[in-house]
Structure formats: C-alpha cells, structure tokens
UniProtKB/TrEMBL annotation:
Biological role: Probable 2-oxoglutarate-dependent dioxygenase that may be involved in glucosinolates biosynthesis. May play a role in the production of aliphatic glucosinolates.
Domain of life of the organism encoding this protein: Eukaryota
UniProt cross-references to PANTHER family, sorted A to Z: 2-OXOGLUTARATE (2OG) AND FE(II)-DEPENDENT OXYGENASE SUPERFAMILY PROTEIN-RELATED
UniProtKB keywords: Dioxygenase, Iron, Metal-binding, Oxidoreductase
Region (Disordered): 1-21
Cross-referenced Pfam families: 2OG-FeII_Oxy (PF03171), DIOX_N (PF14226)
Molecular function in Gene Ontology: dioxygenase activity; metal ion binding
Name of the protein in its database record: Fe2OG dioxygenase domain-containing protein
Keyword Oxidoreductase part of the UniProt annotation: yes
Chain intervals with Polar residues compositional bias: 1-13
Domain Fe2OG dioxygenase: 175-274, 476-577
InterPro entries, A to Z: DIOX_N (IPR026992), IPNS-like_FE2OG_OXY (IPR044861), IPNS-like_sf (IPR027443), Iron_ascorbate_oxido_reductase (IPR050231), Oxoglu/Fe-dep_dioxygenase_dom (IPR005123)
Lineage of source species: Eukaryota, Viridiplantae, Streptophyta, Embryophyta, Tracheophyta
Amino acid sequence: MAAQLHSKNTGSRKTLKQDMGSEVEQKLPVLDFSKEALKPGTNSWLLACKDVQRALEEFGCFVVLYDKISDEFRNAFVGSLEELFDLPTETKMTNKYEKPLNGYVGQIPKLPLHESLGIDCATNFEETKKFTKLIERAYAFAKVAEELDQMVARMIFESYGVEKYYDSYVGSISYLLRILQNRSPKENEHNLGFVAHTDKSFTTVLYQNNQVNALEVETRNHEWIKVEFPPSSFIVMAGDALMAWSNDRILSPNHRVIMSGNETRYSLAQFAFSDGEIHVPEELGDEERPLRYKSFDHPGLLRFFRSQDRYISNSAIKAYCDRMGSETQPKLPVIDLSDENLKPGTDAWLLACKEIKDALEEYGCFEAIYHKIPLELHNSIFSAMEDLFGLPLETKKQKTSDRPYHSYFGQYSFLPLYESLGVDNPTTVEGAQGFTSIIETAHSFSKLVAELSQMVTRMVFDMYGVQRLFDSHMESTTYLLRCFKYRTQEENETNVGLHPHTDKTFISILNQNQVNGLQIGTKDGQWIDVNPSPSSFLILAGDAFMAWSNDRVPSCDHQVTMKENKTRYSLGLFAFKSGIIQVPEELIDEKHPLLYKPFDHFSFLDFDRTPEARKLKCSIKAYCGFFNSLWPFLTENKVGNWGLVGTYGMFSPSSASNLSERTIIGELFSLIVNQELGLTDGPKPFCSY
C-alpha cells in the first residue's frame, strides 16, 4: 500500500448540512459550453456569464463541458504520452531548451510520482516537429484550449461590465502548455502527486486525458474538494493575476494532486499570461472595495517571483502587490535588549522574545540596542583595526586557518574595495593571542558580544518552545570574530563593497564604525539602508539557522554598497555549531513538513566552498534539503536552461495566434522551485500601493 500523507478527511469533498440534517457533498459547479446557441448577446450567453462569475468568486474554478476533444483524440494522445515517458531517462534528458523550466526533469525524491517533458512554441508547427508523435495532437489541443480560455475571459469581462477592455487583454495574451504525468505510488511511497499551490497565470485551462481523478481544490473554508472530470470536460481555474485584476472578487484557488489506485494520470494545463501590464479596472474599485492593487507587468511579476531566494507565500500575488505598507520605505525592527530587568520568565523577556521572533521571521534580522559594550571599547577595537589592516599584505596573508572563511581574504579584482581577516575562538584568550596588536580588545569585545548572541539564541529557543535544547546547543557553539575593511572606490571602480549573500552561520552579529554601507534585503526584494549607532548591533540569521528553523526564519540577504568617501570598518561575530544541526521535532507539523536533513555545520562550510556550491543559489538546500538530488541541475550556468529545470513539460503556443512570444513561468512548478529548492526569496511589492 502507498504511504498516505493525509488523513481520511483530507481531500474529501466538503459536506453541507441541509435543513433535515442530512449531508450533501459539495462539488465544483459544472457549466455546459457545448451548446451551439452559446453566442455573445444571447440569453444563454448572459446566463453563462453570471454562472462563470459566481463560480469564480466562490470557488475560483469550475468544470466546463466542452465537446471539442473527441474520445479518439484523447485515447491517441494518451498513447503518445505513454510512449514518450517510457523512453530511457538519458533520451528524455536530451529534451533541452534555452528557456528556464521548459525541458525534462524527473527522478525527484520528494515527488517521485512526477516526470515531464516540454515542447516550446507548441502552436508553431515547425517547433512541434521536434516531437514527431505529438505534432498534430499538441497543436490541436493548444488551439482548443485557447478558444475555450478566450471565451471564458470574455464572459468574465462582460459579467463585470468592463468588456471595453477585453480586446486589449486578448491582444496581450501568450500561452504556456504543460504536459503532466503522475504515476501511481509504489509500496511505502507517499501519495502526493503535487504540492498545494496557486497559479500565477490570469487563467488556467486543465484537461485530464484519462479517468484517474487526483486533482483536489481547496474551498474558501479550507476544505478540499476532489474534482471529478466528466467526459469531454475541462477545469477552468483563476490564477493570482486574475484575482488581482478583479480586486479580490475572484478567488485564486489552492489546488494539489493526491494519487490513489494503480493507474498513471496524464493531464494537460494551458496557462494564459499577459505580455504587458495588468490593471484593475476602475469600475472594480469603489468605497466598499477600494483599489487594492496597482498596475503591474505580468512577465515582470513572474520574473520577480522566480528570481528570489528562500521565500514563498500561500498567496504570492498579495505578497507582491498587497496594498498594506507598500508605499513606505521599510525599516528594520529596533529592539532594546539593554534593560537590566530583561530576565528569563519576566514580562519584559517574553515581550522581547515575541518581538525577536516576529523580526526574524519577517526580515531574518533586526537591530538590537545593547549598552553593555562600553564606547571606549568600541572605539579602541576599531582604532586597532586600522592599524591591523595597515600591515603589509604579506603579513596579513599569514593569517590562515584550516576552517573555511577563517583566513585572510582580499586583493580580488572582482571585490577591489574589500578585505577581511578572522580571529578564531575570540572569546578565549588563546584564540585572541593570534593577533597580538588587539589581544585584549578583541577578547573583551568578543566576550560581551557573545553574551548578546547567547541571549538572542535563548529567546529564540524559548519562543519556539525548545528550551530543552538550548544548553546543549550553546555547549557546542564556537565563534569567529571577523574584521572587515572597505576602502573608498577610485575613479572608474565599482562601489560594490560586498555582493549580495547570506551568512553560513547560525547567528551573525555585526557592528560598524560611523561609515554606513550595509543593506538588508527584504522578502519583497527591496534593500534597506542600515544606519546603526555605535551602541547598536545587527543580528542576522544565517543559513544554518534557517535550516534549524525549518524555513520559519529566512537567512538574511545583505550586501555592502559604498556611498561615502570614507573607509568603512566593521566587525562580525559569527556563531557556528561544532556538530550536528537538526530541525527540532517541535518545529515540524502539517504546515511545516520537514525540509532539511540533519547536517554537520562545518562539513556544510566545506561544501559551500566547492566550485559546484558557489554556482548555486542556495547551498544549504543543496547540502541537506530533501530536494538536493535536483541541485546538480540548478547551477547558475544551467538554471537558465529549459532542458534541465522544470518538473512539468511545457508548450508555449502563442505564435499560432500571432501573439508575441514571452518567457512565461507557470505556477505548477513554482512551489518546488521557490520553497523547496530555494530559487526564490519571495515576492517584491511589485504592484502594491
């Protein structure tokens, strides 16, 4: 028997109680578009417009009967797909495109039931010749799905009284067609065919080639309806872009695939994307429903959604475009940790714990006010750093360490402004003695900052209810004090002090002189300029913290951009764990399934230094994430190759309709790419007010 991921109630149809106390199964609305009399302006058309509007507002999707696909066509197409997917893996992997997410990918451990292939420009007959057995059938299906999609789009525009915008919308559409295969689960395999997600399209047309029903749709009440496909039927589904266009009147439904039985499921999905901007019609904004989204470029939204590093939202379009707080420049939370009464168990402690948790989950960092570092000590160590970096280069290069990132770094053409060196175990006198010129100041400074690190770590453990693990965690924690210098740029030099990156630490604590330049990346892709005072410190979550938290806390993106004509010095105390890091069982639940295997922290640092790891967008996910078997395909050199990335086969059938070709990325693979593989950090407020 296949391992079931969900309880008996999960995935069942929603039931409604009637007056007599009986229960009825709730199903998606079924609309019949096969009638010859269904023409614009007719009574049947107007009724259908209202039915479409009601279905999309309540469920975000509906079943439509549309008898343009014959049984003969369906059976022949399924046969072609079976033969295609039965080819040797080596053969299927030769299916490559220059565009991302458009070729073959399979053999993914967390989704073993999935495999896919793609054909670009499926309505271009010359392109489909590359797949000789699918030429006519793929082209024919793409045209039928296009016809149905545009009929539904017209009904949507007319039902809201904004039909004057329909022609310009249709003129901007391009389509992406993807082929999906879900095999049946083997013994002890889970039955998850595809994770719950919403589409990023305007609309999506789904077609199932056989009667293996596995698609489930979540209702507004967060219950799951198992979708049944009658003969000659399609599912029309709203995407996030349509939800934004409708000013939140229409639902973009969460949906997933749960496999059962012993048959393989084949399905097709055609996604509609605008090649340009999407505007909320002014008619859809009023006093009761004020405008919630500003105009946004649809392909740009998709590129933003794909380009970030670790964040995914259950409603990505809202994370991009939601009105709240989008016009003001974001600022890092500032938390005062200098109160003498800040003791474990006190109200002040509990309040600070919550503030820290909220800040880390939102930004991956915060600014801490901490007065326990005397100003004299602060000034002394930064003065000593000037002398240290003034030493001859040969002397500085003698600072070496067997541990990654602990040695001297500098004199690189790609980072001409930057140099740094590290003091291993600076909280011990022995460690600090490696730098005779700053022994006492480095040791004193590190001891006090380590106390801050331990306080923050304890608050995190308290807030997540894993206090029992704190002592053992701290016993295995070691520190690295790293000194940084960023000189001013010369004429024609870049002002990049340090490229965007995340730390590989558990926690990093940064302190600087009065020359600013540090910038923190937010989930929505903005960069916050950080201007801390001498008595404040930046607390940053590293990759190891992100993995330990099971992705509750993002690893903080940061960079240094030199804007002042002064040399910038900064100090970082980096916390590492000597031993194994694993996700506490308390941080694993239905909403947060286990994403990382236990890993050795310093072995991860060794891996991160390899040439292969340096090409990755997120090395921690490659090293110990449950999707790591796909990472060899996800280097910077290959991430743009449609043949090596993408769990679903794709067509881009725009050319047959004289529509401009765009690089479009559908949602069906985005949740894997974004949440599991770390290719995205999350949405920018791209169309927010």
